[in-house]
Amino acid sequence: MSKKGAVLICDDSITSRKNLKRTIISKGDYTILEASDGQMAVELYKSNMPDLVFMDIVMPVKDGLLATKEIRAFDKNARIVILSSVGTKENLKEALTCGVLDFIQKPWDEKHIESMLSKLI
Which CATH superfamily is domain 5-120 in? Predict the structure, then answer.
């Protein structure tokens, strides 16, 4: 059986990454890439070109919005979904101007993650 696609999870919280990874794996046979900061996410994106990125905002080294801008500059077709607990209007507005496809507030709902996977991969 072949993999359905590749998903990059970028979050500085190992617990958040583990929980999201578990949910994604329960929805199908996806290749999962993990990054703990925005710089690592940019590097992993450029070297692996995943089908979908789940990106936190507040992280060390490089925040998720800056990482999103860099990924989108590299690949204007990158599919990025912000998954963050800092859902202020300013963050939402900036994320949308960066070209993200959706902004999911933490704690996330499993059905919303499943919807993103089926719609975007």
Answer: Response regulator (3.40.50.2300)
